[in-house]
Design a protein that fits this description.
CATH architecture of the largest domain in chain A: Sandwich
CATH topology of the largest domain in chain A: Immunoglobulin-like
CATH class of one domain in chain B: Mainly Beta
CATH class of the largest domain in chain A: Mainly Beta
Number of strands of chain B: 8
Order of helices and strands of chain A: HEEEEEEEE
Helix content of chain A: 10-25%
Shape of chain A: elongated
Largest sheet of chain A: 4 strands, antiparallel
CATH architecture of one domain in chain B: Sandwich
Radius of gyration of chain A: 20 Å
Largest sheet of chain B: 4 strands, antiparallel
Number of strands of chain A: 8
Radius of gyration of chain B: 19 Å
Oligomer: heterodimer
Order of helices and strands of chain B: HEEEEEEEE
Chain lengths: 146, 137
């Protein structure tokens, strides 16, 4: 009864509220929905030569991850299996369960100047890094004046 | 005795770090990593998502009944990269837990794999459930 009056973790609740507030005030929602707060978290950056996507997806088997690039849409999909006790130990109690588990899928639309033949991905310390080069023709060039 | 010195040293280094931070750029902000905490009869298992934190940048500290997990995100990025969109905006994780007395903080084991920290804190010997044999005379 008292349990319900107090959030299990006040800070986790505040964090969630803050996230929801941010979502509510995000003035540039994408056509594919608001990605913030999903799994995995994404950071996207770029240089003149390439586009870099970082997916914060810890605890995955790199072989079981699906990374596709199709017509300018980069899809990252996979599944994270829960590590919680299966129930054979009666004494086991789950006190906090905040980590994501289940299937996930995130889609990023890339700019038109990327070259889909040059995509590469690596997974390190739980971060998936996708690197796509831009087309040679789209790169800034210095034009010599004759 | 050894324990006391270790604690004092930890405290000293922490104060150092705090002063340095205040002097330098503000690096106090940190993200709270999501965790799972599971207790069984022999101890507590804690798993925390710390993507991008290498082993060298992870700091675990048990001090006066609190457990502090602190990690710095270190990802190789091209130098000229400009971020266009970021959901992980702070390259640091921190979370503090209060431990209870029956946990044996001297026997904590930790493993970091693919950005997931697994901590095992066993319960002290005397706190573990024991089955009492009844002798029939």
């Amino acid at each position: 009864m008292y349990r319900a009056l107090f959030a299990r973790d006040v800070f986790a609740e505040l964090d969630r509220m803050q996230r929801e507030m941010q979502e509510a005030f995000d003035l540039s929602p994408s056509i594919r929905g608001i990605g913030r707060g999903g799994f995995p978290a994404l950071n996207v950056g770029g240089t003149a030569q390439s586009v870099e996507i970082y997916a914060f997806a810890p605890g995955l088997d790199p072989a079981a991850m699906e990374v596709n690039l199709d017509r300018g849409l980069l899809t990252i999909a996979g599944e994270r299996t829960p590590d919680l006790p299966s129930g054979d130990d009666e004494k086991a109690a789950v006190h906090i369960n905040e980590r994501f588990s289940g299937r996930f899928r995130r889609v990023v639309s890339l700019s038109d100047d990327v070259d889909p033949n040059t995509v590469s991905a690596d997974y390190r310390d739980g971060v998936l890094h996708v690197h796509v080069k831009r087309h040679q023709s789209a790169q800034p060039r210095r034009i010599a004046v004759q | 005795m050894n324990d006391t010195t270790a604690v004092t040293r930890n405290e000293a280094s922490r104060t150092d770090a705090a002063t340095r931070n205040e002097a330098g750029q503000r690096s106090d902000a940190a993200l709270m990593p999501p965790v799972d905490v599971i207790e069984d009869s022999a101890g507590i298992t804690l798993r925390a998502d710390l993507p991008g934190v290498p082993k060298e940048k992870l700091k675990l500290q048990v001090e006066a009944g609190t457990l502090t997990i602190e990690g710095e995100v270190s990802i190789a990025m091209p130098e000229s990269m400009e971020a266009t969109y970021a959901e992980v905006s702070v390259p640091r994780f921190r979370r503090v837990f209060t431990l209870s007395k029956e946990l044996d903080t001297g026997k904590v084991s930790a493993e970091l794999k693919h950005g997931v920290l697994s901590l095992r804190i066993p319960k002290a010997e005397h706190a573990q459930p024991r089955r009492i044999d009844i002798k029939v005379s």
